[in-house]
Specification:
166 residues; alpha+beta
């Protein structure tokens, strides 16, 4: 949606439910905007972490043949068109497995969404498991609650460079 800014996951979910996103890139951009704003609500008790670690991670572009729509630290988010969650789930698993192989055994968090419905998964030593399924706002709230409760790991050299600014 050109010209509209998204300050919450609810805004994105409402517009997705109304069919206002013409394509996946528009939905992805709206979700990134909402994420940048919502992270303050979940991780806001430490503005240094939000402004100097999380936001630079989110801004960087992940390079390579296979890349997730949104990836920061040990979190992967795959955005799909409505009805595409089953295909997105497979892609999400692969991106999470790829990241886990580079992240020295860290637990990897992942969400697949079509803007309305979403699923939050964890990938750890016990496998790929569903944490919560529901509306975008609820699922992303669960993800950010878990993410912000942990020490935020720096997983890739690109993340370190984006934080340090070199």
């Amino acid at each position: 949606m050109a010209g509209k800014t998204y300050s919450s996951f609810s805004d994105v979910e409402n517009d997705a439910r109304s069919g206002l996103f013409a394509n996946e890139p528009d939905l992805r951009q709206a979700l990134v905007e909402a994420l940048k704003n919502e992270i303050n609500r979940y991780c806001g008790k430490n503005p240094v972490v939000v402004d100097h670690i999380f936001k630079p991670m989110l801004e960087r572009v992940v390079e390579g043949k296979r890349r997730a729509d949104i990836m920061f630290s040990n979190v992967v988010i795959e955005v799909k068109k409505p009805g595409g969650l089953s295909q997105g789930r497979q892609q999400l698993y692969q991106y999470m497995a790829d990241l886990r192989s580079r992240a020295n055994g860290l637990v990897i968090h992942g969400v697949v969404t079509d803007g309305v419905d979403a699923e939050y998964y964890l990938l750890d030593d016990t496998g790929f498991k569903l944490v919560i399924r529901g509306g975008l706002s609820d699922v992303m709230g669960g993800l950010l609650t878990s993410f912000c409760a942990q020490k935020i790991p720096i997983v890739t050299p690109e993340e370190l460079l984006s934080i340090v600014g070199i």
